[in-house]
Amino acid sequence: MDFICSKNPTVWDGKGFTPCFADMVLGFGGNVVTVVAVLVLFFTKHNASWNLNIRKGLLEKVFLHIVPAFGACLSFYELNLLLRKCLEGHNAESHEWFIRCSQFVDWQMVIVLISFYEYWFDIFCNPLLCFWWILKPLLEIPHLQYKFSLLEVITCLKESSSLSAEVMFCIFVNVVRAMSQSHKREFDNIEDPLILHETKVKEIHVVKLARNFSSFWHLLTFKFVNVMMDVGVTRQLDYNDLIKLPSELTPALSYDKLLCCWIEELSKHKSHSSLFRAMYYAYGWPYIRLGLLKVINDAIGFIGPLLLNKLIKYLQQGSGSMDGYILALSLGLSSIFKSFLDTQYTFRLLKLKLMLRSGIMAIIYRKCLHISLAERSKFSEGEVQTFMSVDADRTINLCNSLHDVWSLPLQIGVALYLLYTQVSYAFLSGLAITILLIPVNKWISTLIASATEKMMKQKDERIRSAGEVLTHIRTMKMYNWEDLFTKRLMDRRELEVKHLSTRKYLDAWCVYFWATTPTLFSLFTFLVFVLMGHSLDAATVFTCVALFNTLISPLNSFPWVINGIIDAIISTRRLSNYLSCPEHNAEFENISSRELPTDDLACQFHRESNAIETPIPISLQDAHFSWSSSSEVVKHAVLNSISLQLPKNLLVAIIGEVGSGKTSLINSILGEMQLIHGVVHSHGSIAYVPQVPWILSGSLRDNILLGKQFDARRYGEVLKACTLDVDISLMVGGDMLHIGEKGMNLSGGQRARLALARAVYQDSDIYLLDDILSAVDPQVALWILQKTILGPLMKQKTRLLCTHNLQAISAADMIILMDKGHIKWAGTSAGFKTSPYSTICKPDDSNILPSTFLEEEKRTSASSQLDSSLLLEIDAVAASDELQESTEKEIRKEGKVELSVYKSYAMFASWPVVILICVSAFFMQASRNGNDLWLSYWVDTTTGTEYTSFYLVILSIFGFINSLFTLARAFSFANGGLRAAIRVHAELLNKLLNAPVYFFDQNPSGRVLNRLSSDLYTVDDSLPFILNILMANFFSLLGIAVVLSYAQVFFLLLLFPFWYVYRKLQFYYRSTSRELRRLDSVARSPIYSSFTETLDGSSTVRAFQKEELFMTRFIEHISLYQQTSFSELTASLWLSLRLQLLAAFIILSISMMAVIGCGRRLPFSFGTPGLVGLALSYAAPVVSLLSSFLTSFTETEKEMISVERILEYMDVPQEELQGSQCLGPNWPTEGKIEFEHVTLRYKPALPAALKDVSFSIAAGTQVGIVGRTGAGKSSVLNALFRLSPICDGRILVDDLDVAEIAVRDLRRHFAAVPQSPFLFEGTLRENLDPFGMASDIKLWEALERCHMKAEVESAGGLDIYIEGSGGISFSVGQRQLICLARAIIKSSKILCLDESTANIDTETALLLQNTISNVCRGMTVLTIAHRVSTVMKMDHLLVLDHGVLVEQGNPEFLLKNKFSRFSSFAKASTV
User: What's the CA gap between 722 and 718, in Å, rounded?
Assistant: First the structure.
């Protein structure tokens, strides 16, 4: 060692490895190991059974030939230099000869093997040697370190190039190895009897590998985006034009991966499971590997300031050597290299985020499919919707924030160290300012977290309330509750905005502190540096300025990163809480059991999908059920001591009063309730028809099939049995007719029969039918009972039917009587007739229908009475013609976002505030540029420390002005964003609630809710954020352009061609990006619509065990959304790369101009050293600023699409709120109603729903409106309430034309009970008397008359809180009674009842009819009814058919005429 290292034979010299040790042991030793390893592998692999050829394209030639040749040339050049040194009489160190010779031999061996031997792949890609290729460049770092310490530019460049060649070859070999392994696995997994020949396998392998290498350049430069961009410039993009998703981004794969990890997490930690841990299990290692790439990327970012320092020193010296050109070239190349690294890191992070997003959205949806109604009760519907719309996006933003948490402090730390090398300990003064602000920002961040959590809760409530309004918009308008719900929503919005404003102003303080930190940092640093006795020079000042500029981005980003992490943690906890809920019992393998701590008896729920040979398909043993979730303390059970053994193939009728527990019993069998105690068994497949039919958006056939294979014979039988065949024959498009959301283009009866047809088609073993006969008229009900429930399709099935229908009860094999959550009586039909409870189902209509009439009817053949021609259910409202394409396709605007959209947003934010923001931002940037120009002037005019105080005072003034305007900009922006958020929501809500009903028929609630949730969230949060960044970037670029033009006049010559290229790039990109964002918004709507739809019908999906079907459909929606997002984000990276390369050219040009001007070969100079240094320090951040500006500009345009979408809904048609007639407070005084030749159409091209209808109703008359389902009965009320405008004729109330009355005034003076009862979330008192006009005595009287007083008293009185959409704590029948009580309290002269007793038992219905007759005496009552007994005591009767008034008169008179239409209804109802 002494012979070779005669000058320094030691290993460590106190600062690092000695040059000799680094060259001999690490360098030469590493090269020798490489040669030996390659030679050993060469001889052992010489007879290898297979080898690999790579088609040598451009990239392959670069890596296989040019890189090794370049390394060999460098080594040979170094050997020549050493030889020349010896010939000139200088001594060359022995260790230098050793390392240079070994390097040359190393590269030569690589070239020879690749050029002359085909099996080089087996050698170089050997697993051990692959690891060595990674280790070898690391061993040469000490050699590079001591060479860099010589501070010779040529030497540094040569050594860097040599090491870069080794790194590139290492990367190439390892990539080839990884690709070959993946393809080898593909071939190993082929399960084909015809095994490919070995040479064929090799050919395919080579082709695939070559294709991968040829696509590497496209991936590096995002050239694959060009095809889509070319289309985007020429025409509007469509989904077919989007970039195809890579296989790893397939949502199905992402979902499976994350689900497996979540299940593993759930099994380990139960209720304390964390979604974050599951995310780490799924994507932790890829994410950590991305961190390594980010380290390299961040490290290269600091090469620029170091090269800048050396270049300015070179310019100060004014030497004419080549070092200046090399430094200028290195500055440009480092920017180019960083551009590629930066975009590749972002691209891979983007792919990870998309995989995570699709996985999270899918498992949220899956949870919705598998969580029971009882477990879901602890979350409001709005909260669950927020999980999908907001929390999923916030959680994936954790991917950005987690790397930034360590990366930003690292960048700050390196920048501070480099500052130390320039200004010694003076930088500590600036650091002290930064450290003092850390606890302040931490305190602010804590407050922001608290405000965010509170804001999210209020947002959940607002979205839930908005969804409630949209679901029941028709009922709300009938009640004239627009102002009431506007106030409710505005109150919730006010609470949300309260926390939003707290967050905004705290953010403003955060932005202020962090934005002023670099200015204060530079001010205090230079102040202390000068006071320490040092003089400022251009190299020191502008290296520091460049480092300060490097600090700006991490310092400004850090508060947002902290806020993002806080938001993500909150959202992750919310999602973990939701996803940890116990799932529906049927999800577990056939049986699940758990021990209750309060009881020794195990609770068991057992459901077997496959029917087994057992006489007992349904069994309940001492079962107690509750609607509360498992995490809540059960206060009282809804069902108590239920014990049932239901035999096979029987029709079981479940009867009882309203609220007795009939629906709860059905849900307990389905497993939707919490089983507190006891055992539940069910054997066989189940079909379920809920009381409120659940209809899917899609074709009628899809609704019936529900994923089952189409069987034409059975399909036809089902349609006929459910009387849908005639309906379909009259629909344009037949059974392929598109049904809108919630079946809005079908009548109530058609929805019920469609839900029944779906159940019958499934051919299940058990049918659970919840009051399906109440929604159809008596004739249809009788047909369904005889031809469907008792017919051949269901005869051999077990059927449970909740009903009040007398014919169904009489036909039942077994009857269960429910009373207040208990089984009061159960037995056969024969036993029930002799029981004391048989009077419950014996209505007192003997005085209504004579016995002779009944006898005659019994003799009438079923064929004559139940002819399908009499069961025609046509209604212009319901027929396919009504709303053939009722759900309009969501409109997507074309072209750029119009200027009017920006103006509208500025108007919402207030023009004075906008002007203040612009002025403060301008002067903020001007003061900062003035600060830097003053520094330039200082270093150019002084050489010592004279006049220091004067220069420091001016510098301090600039710093103070900058701080002042920064504060003004931050708070004015927060104020403007808040103003816009408040005004946008208020106006949007006002416009939506004043829109006519048909607007909501044509637009699904999910689409409208998207505006009130996702789009409004953009206006609240992300749009102001990105606008703030855009403005900062714009004024920064403007300042840079001005300073560069002043400092380097020659820059003006580059400015115009540069601006031309820049405009071309942004035009090429923006035309595509706009369409991509619009496609993205449109693709997002089906996700929310599908999610909302599934929330409504999740119990039905579980009953049919169609979870996988709906999961597959949802994955398809996510796939489209994933594709649009991937296309959008890769397009933005395409632009970012090109902008950064353009900015690198600017840096290269300016630095070259400075070097040329410094050479004194020209008759003029390009500026003083101070100005040149200023120009170079300003040129460095152009790379990031240009990219950030266009990115923020494009993002702003994308975010503005949300404003555009909101403005679109601010321009919807509005109801006429003004009228020419003023009404008195007691109008109508009489209640006289006249229809004169009224014709009503729901669309101009559709048949009339009411055709020339004329009738007159005297004041105080009680009128019944009957007709087959869909005959136009509800259209009469629609016309009277002006929910749909009539196209001909007029309607008079007390001789006033209703068309001349303000629509809200009109509805305010009417009382109504809608077909679908609506109770909003709030107290019962608020539901009965929303405006607080009635006394408690009056409320209790109304409840007593509606037979609800006892139930309300037992539940807790008028102040009980009704939870969930539609009042889920009450049964449907009870909700109808409460709605009736609400109408009675209103005390209007006109009362309209739309099938108000349809879901009420017969006994209660008769009592209510008597109540209506007595209480409503003197009032005009219009009653739409299916029960004949309901209208028999009416004064007058209207019979409608196909929109035509076919009969009217006294019910008894019409009944006596056996040929009348009403007579046929009466006969059907008594069979």
Answer: 6
Cβ proximity of 307 and 330 under 8 Å? yes
Rounded to whole angstroms, the Cα distance separating 644 from 652 reads 12
The mean predicted confidence, pLDDT, of the chain is: 78
DSSP 565-619: HHHHHHHHHHHHHHHTSPPPGGGSSSEEEE--TT-SSPEEEEEESS--S-S-SEE
Note the pLDDT of residue 923. Answer: 92
List, for residues 898-932, the tens digit of each pLDDT value.
Answer: 888 889 999 999 899 999 999 999 998 898 888 88
Exposed / middle / buried, residue 199 (Cβ in 10 Å: 0-12, 13-18, 19+): exposed
At how many degrees (to 10) do helices 1107-1158 and 323-370 cross? 170
pLDDT score for 133: 73
Q: What is the DSSP string of 1202-1213?
A: HHHHHHHHTTS-
pTM score > 0.85 for this model?
A: no
Digit-coded pLDDT (tens) for 272-304:
888 888 998 888 888 888 888 888 888 887 787
Structure-block tokens of residue 548: 């300060």
Cα 1323–1328–1331 angle (5° rounding)?
90
458, 907, 914 from 979: Cα distances, Å: 18, 10, 11
Specify the residue for token string 């997994």.
189
10 Å Cβ neighbour count for 189? 7
Closest-CA residue to 913 (of 1004, 834, 861, 983): 983
The identity of residue 93, as a single letter, is E
Sheet of strand 603-608, all strands in order from the earlier edge strand to the far edge: 591-594, 603-608, 674-683, 618-626, 639-646
3-state SS string for 498-537: HHHHHHHHHHHHHHHHHHHHHHHHHHHHHHHHHHCCCCCC
The token pair at 278 is 């599951």
Q: For residue 988, give the nearest of 957, 1020, 1012 by alpha carbon.
A: 1012
How many Å separate Cα 835 from the centre of its chain? 57
Structure tokens at 1397: 């007793």
- Reported as a pLDDT band with limits 50, 70 and 90, residue 1169 is low
Q: Give strand pairing partners of 1297.
A: 1292
Show the DSSP H helices in 1235-1371 as ranges: 1273-1280, 1303-1308, 1324-1328, 1336-1345, 1349-1355
Could you report the per-residue pLDDT of 855-885, keeping only the tens digit for each? Answer: 444 334 333 333 433 333 333 333 333 333 4
Beta-bridge mates of residue 1262: 1421
Write the single-letter amino acid at 637: A
Rounded to whole angstroms, the Cα distance separating 1110 from 406 reads 41
- Render pLDDT for 1346-1405 as a digit per residue (tens, 0 to 9): 888 888 888 788 888 887 554 456 777 778 788 888 888 888 889 888 876 655 666 667
In the structure, how many helices (H) and strands (E) does the chain have? 54, 25
Alpha-carbon distance 729 to 747, whole Å?
A: 16
Check: CB of residue 905 under 8 Å from CB of residue 1133.
Answer: no
Please, are residues 567 and 1201 in contact by the beta-carbon 8 Å criterion? no
| 966 and 516 Cβ atoms separated by less than 8 Å | yes
Using alpha carbons, select from 52, 46, 49 the residue that is nearest to residue 203: 52
Identify residue 826 by its one-letter amino acid code.
A
Length of the chain: 1471
Q: What share of the chain is helix, strand, coil (3-state, %, to 5)?
A: 65, 10, 25
